[in-house]
Amino acid sequence: MSDDLSREPSAHETPTPGMSDPGMSDPRMSDPEVSVPELSASLRSLAGSGAAPAPMAGAQVRRRAVTRRRRRHAALAGGAAVAVAALAFGLTSALDGGSDARPAPPAAPSTRSAAPAATVDLGTRTLTLDGRRVPVSSGSTSHPTRTGRMTVVAKHRVKRLTSESVGLGDEYDVKLPWVVELRGPDGRANFILAMTYAEGAPGVRDSTRGAIGLRSADARWVYGRLSPGAVVAVRG
């Protein structure tokens, strides 16, 4: 009997159930918890959840690109329109000075356009200012007073006058009060002044070297009413 137990089974013998090698067990005897079809379905679902989206057709890609370009162009056009409108508004405000801005005052009239504040008539030996006429003495025949429109450029309570200042060499050098300095378009100077050395000459005779001489009281009155920038018209 010991011989029967110790011998190897022959190739023609069929193994006894339950007595075979554990490593060679029959799959049908394993009783798995999940069937093969269920496992396959689970794997397919897991793979589908992480898969990339299906590629779009070429026509669809082109349509989306065109749509994006149109949106960018529309945004750029809108931004440009806003910038242009802002610039136009700024320029209009700058030119108009704003809706409640006051208009700029008119520029000061030039000597040619400004109305004369005073008029000197050499023929009648008078100066008219503010409706009042006062007598004057003008230049002699050898030293005539220049005519035309002149502008007041300065006033002097007392001024030293020399013949050189009016281009007459060294004929005289005196100090006179209530001097109104005039300047003609040619830049040459002339003066309205008090003739303290010949109070009786104004209105009677012409005895200056080209200046417009007045009596001291009249010269002071004219001095107080003419300001720099005023125009004096001198006519013969």
Automatic annotation (TrEMBL):
Domain L,D-TPase catalytic: 118-234
Ranges of biased composition (kind: Basic residues): 61-72
Any one Gene Ontology molecular-function term assigned to this protein's record: transferase activity
Family matches, as CDD domains: YkuD_like
Bias type Low complexity, positions: 39-60, 109-118
TM region(s), chain numbering: 74-95
Domain of life of the native organism: Bacteria
Keywords: Cell shape, Cell wall biogenesis/degradation, Membrane, Peptidoglycan synthesis, Transferase, Transmembrane, Transmembrane helix
Gene Ontology BP, a term: cell wall organization
Pfam families on file: YkuD
Descriptive protein name: L,D-transpeptidase
